[in-house]
## 1
Amino acid sequence: MARALAAGSTAHRVIVHIDLDCFYAQVEMIHNPELREKPLGVQQKYLVVTCNYEARKLGIKKLMSVRDAKEKCPQLILVNGEDLTPYREISYKVTELLEEFSPLVERLGFDENFVDITEMVEKKLGQLQRDGLSKVSVCGHVYNDQSICLQDMMHVRLIIGSQIAAEMRETMHNRLGLTGCAGVASNKLLSKLVSGTFKPNQQTVLLPESCHHLIESLDHIRKVPGIGFKTTKRLELLGLSSIRDLQTCSPEILVKELGVAVAERIQKLSCGEDDSLVTPSGPPQSFSDEDSFKKCSSEVEVKKKIEELLTNLLDRIHNDGRKPRTIRLTIRQFSLTNKWFNRESRQCPIPPHIIQKFGTGTYDVVSPLVDILMKLFRKMINVEMPFHITLLSVCFSNLKALPSCTRGSIGFYLTRTSSHASARTCIQEMESVPQDQAH
DNA sequence: TGGGGTTAT
DNA sequence: ATAACCC
């Protein structure tokens, strides 16, 4: 019954969206607390990708160029954030913490999570109903200052949701030292939109009656999560730019321009409707490492960069414990027009004899993979001709668990219950299980 | 515009 | 393999 609610019914869901405040900057401030009272930016190449609130007060914006940022604020402290390792690690700690509340946690980037708390809410509701609901009170803001009606069970559910969201934020702060926003609503779209209404480090619940106020507060269709750059351009060519334009557009016109799937989805989004489920992310589907640069124009340079990316990745893969079946090389060629659009990639299966070597570490897995990657490179670039590459990226995907960690083996159960949920810890734990307990 | 990720076609 | 989306 409760299972069916969380999985399928659109009526009673309670979703919370958790959005960490300026995540990379927070991680850097935890790493070096002296940065806390100072304006801080995190730099990748010549961009300030994010900054703390001290810096925002002084006019620094996300994705501002380093030149503009220093001009605006000469005392701005910059730390390099090109290596995502520390952010990735803390990001997964946040997801794991949220998974203690509900297994239905979906990651969105490194700093956002959706949690479906429908079941937890139903359980608490059952407990509360025994001694009356009169003392139930909201945590944080109510969107649009809407008044609460305790006779309305959806109001009660969302209010219980606001209490759970507050617990999540408290736990994140106590255990990880992180602050963030939360939005509570009846679907993913609305929870995400409402989480941003009071920032930073605050939370907001949306009651159903204010749904239209929220969605119509967006000043352009581009602000709707799910309507991206391309779709926006095509809609603008149809003369559609406001939320109201999209709501009232005839479906036939949209279907003709975008196809039935996209048309139906975005028109529902424009009405605040989103029936997509919170899909548990689980372990990552792929591992990639990339580097961008002004110019790379010789095979020797390419090989050197690929070796660097690869050694980094092999470390991460080894740590995860699963083995990839597919390897991909992505490049970006220099061009004056379209500078950050033109990526191309080639991928191929990893030969089984190389996959085997991943676990053991005794054989050199780097050089055969570099050879494969250079072949993929030559499929895209004629190295006899001059070339100008501005980005290289290596990606491992199609990850499979170790043979020992299949269902039915002890490894399977150990991985599922271990807080670090990786095949690596599974192997370590298996090895430490005394023989008489192993079966 | 970085350095990542995901799903759909 | 690419194209779209997300951060």
Note: Residues 405 and 412 of chain A are 5 Å apart (CA to CA).
## 2
Amino acid sequence: MSQHALFSESCKAWRSLPCQQSELRLDLTLGCGQTFRWRETADGHWTGVMRGKVWTLTQTEDTLWYYVYSHQINPETENKQKWKEEEEEQLLGKMSKRKTDMKQEEAGLCTVMSEPDNKDEELLMDYFQLGVKLGDLYRHWSTLDPHFKHTASIFTGVRLLHQDPVECLFSFICSSNNHISRIQGMVDRLCQTLGTLLCKLDDVAYHDFPHLQALTDPSVEMNLRDLGFGYRARFLQQSAQVIVSSHDPDWLQSLCSIPYLQARDALRALPGVGLKVADCVCLMSLNKFEALPVDTHVWQIAKRDYNYAAGSNQKTDRVYKEIGDFFRKLWGPYAGWAQSVLFCADLKRFQKLKEEIPALKDKTELKKKMKERTHDRCDEKQKRKKGKKQKRS
DNA sequence: TCACTACCTGT
DNA sequence: CAGGTAGTG
């Protein structure tokens, strides 16, 4: 039985990448609810599945350390359903390289560390989008927005991941009317039930995210309902069905190369996908960095920190788009990245990071400034609101 | 376009 | 109510 790798015990077995903490904070980036696939398996050690491999990551001030596990399958303990195997057979033709690798591993290899592979570094660079200089962006946003500057001074290194579109889409279909911890559990069970087993570490099984094909079977809805997915179970199965039956195999991926709003509309045609989920997929897997998911957190942030008054009581598509436009105007083309910083800072689990920091005085000063800053814009909106109120009464 | 409601489940 | 969506009037 393999174990989770520990940096302190075997640092020679780890590989590394130069990376400042100001460019990436693993705890914030992996724990802020953009992905549901990583767990802190030891102090500062994050283990999860990415690009079909199992990784443990940790970091020091200027270095990102990574450990890639070799797939270690014990067929006797894996209770595969027959239909799943059949489906995998069907898929064999289109199977990605990682699947082929897996077949080899299944032949009985039981190594702990995978062979060093230059591709791993590329995978990490791509997944964490390390080509995007976060420090520069932070500095830029800070010149535009005093509130951002204040928050960003504490929440450094919050970075958007470049996730797989299938994983992103189906994870966020699960996210509707739901909170992070439950979504994590659901995605866990989804992978465990329909995804390929990759390896076991300390008795914890790591599965790949299910292939699209595995989600299309009509039995999936009932399966997932039994696993506590509620009404989302149908959305998952139906969306998979629609994609497979009425689009090209690489349709989802191909949305990368069309404009943001077109991609968002295309996604919205899928069952269980509204504006918010579509924006999540656009931003987190299709490189639409101006996409800005407006959930209740962002909505609160707009009201509380930016005195955004428009439609403060309505959650219509119109208000959704207005709030997005407001932040895009403020932050520019990478607005989605800036949003993720404030979103992260708003999560309950990270509130303790704020404790020892700011003089309350600064905060109130800041609020005053913001009020003046946004006054004109809100004025207009408030008029509209007032008109409505009168109408209602 | 807007307002309202049902939808699953857990806290 | 929770990090929504879809159906109805």
Note: Residues 177-179, 181-182, 225, 228-233, 314, 316-318 of chain A lie near DNA strand B (CB under 10 Å from a C1').
